[in-house]
């Protein structure tokens, strides 16, 4: 629980540092992309903080491509 609070505090500091210049320069698309990437990073960091494992992108590719590989003739 303490790790997740620490991660959220760090994310809030990052937000306070990065968002005002983006709003000041009216960079809405960049703000949206920044927010999405920060949310993904915070979510993954909290997950790791609780000791859970995060699957790699290779495992995702294997999950989708293994049935296709099984259908191909050998």
3D structure, described in words:
This protein has helices at residues 2-24, 28-49, 57-71. The chain is flat. The protein is mainly α and 74 residues long. It has one domain.
Overall, the morphology is flat
Query: Describe the biggest sheet?
Result: none
Distance between the termini: 51 Å
Mean pLDDT: 93
- Write down the Rg: 19 Å
User: Which regions contain 5 or more consecutive residues with pLDDT less than 50?
Assistant: none
State the domain count: 1
Strand content: under 5%
Total helices: the number is 3
Key features of this structure:
0% strand; 74 residues; mainly alpha
Q: Could you outline the blueprint of secondary structure elements for this entry?
A:
Layout: H1 2-24, H2 28-49, H3 57-71
Tell me briefly what this model is.
This protein is an all-alpha fold.
